[in-house]
Specification:
With 172 residues, the protein is an alpha/beta fold. The protein has one domain: Double Stranded RNA Binding Domain (2-Layer Sandwich), CATH 3.30.160. 29% of the residues lie in helices and 24% in strands. It has a five-stranded mixed β-sheet with strand order 2-1-3-4-5. A hairpin with a 4-residue loop joins strand 4 and strand 5 (124-134). Helix 1 (2-12) packs antiparallel against helix 2 (63-80) and helix 2 runs parallel beside helix 3. The protein starts with a helix and ends with a helix.
Length: 172
């Protein structure tokens, strides 16, 4: 359920007109995953406290680029025991908003990302930001076309690692 919620929320704000439904995706398109962390936390267990996290739609990317990252975030959230909630959950403690840009320059594509973590009142509590360089040749007409799945998965891994560490250090 959390996988479907996170994927749907992350894909909802993309710039593409069609949303990729999980039931329409082939197993061959499933992103590769690193082995799960041993001893995952369970919801409500010390570590993430009582955090109930909602992911807002991603701004600035395409559905094709966001889909593998969304899957990776869902897996990492489940491994960490993170409670992901839908938009209408009144017990939400944190909102995560993602902003992306892809820039083609000097034969490569750079993906710039910012993740804002807000409290339930909408005040920013923390920011995760960075960039990843896609190793493939850049497409100046559509930089997102040059961004491989692995690049977006790395962004998802990094964000979830930083988010879970921050939540553990700042329990709700």
């Amino acid at each position: 359920m959390a996988v479907a919620c996170v994927s749907a929320l992350l894909l909802a704000g993309c710039t593409a007109q069609d949303t990729l439904a999980p039931e329409n995706q082939s197993a061959a398109g499933t992103p590769s995953l690193t082995p799960p962390r041993t001893g995952p936390l369970t919801p409500g267990e010390p570590g993430l406290g009582n955090a109930r996290v909602r992911f807002a739609p991603i701004v600035g990317s395409t559905v094709e680029a966001v889909t593998p990252m969304s899957r990776r975030i869902s897996v990492r959230a489940r491994e960490a025991g993170m409670v992901i909630v839908p938009a209408d959950d009144p017990a939400q403690t944190h909102l995560v908003k993602g902003y992306f840009s892809a820039l083609a320059d000097a034969g490569q594509t750079t993906v710039i990302f910012v993740w804002d973590i807000l409290d339930s009142a909408g005040d920013r509590l923390h920011r995760i930001q960075g960039q990843e360089v896609a190793p493939d040749a850049a497409d100046p007409e559509d930089p997102w076309r040059s961004v491989p799945v692995e690049t977006m998965e790395r962004i998802g891994d990094r964000m979830m690692s930083e988010l879970t560490a921050w939540l553990a250090a700042h329990p709700a």
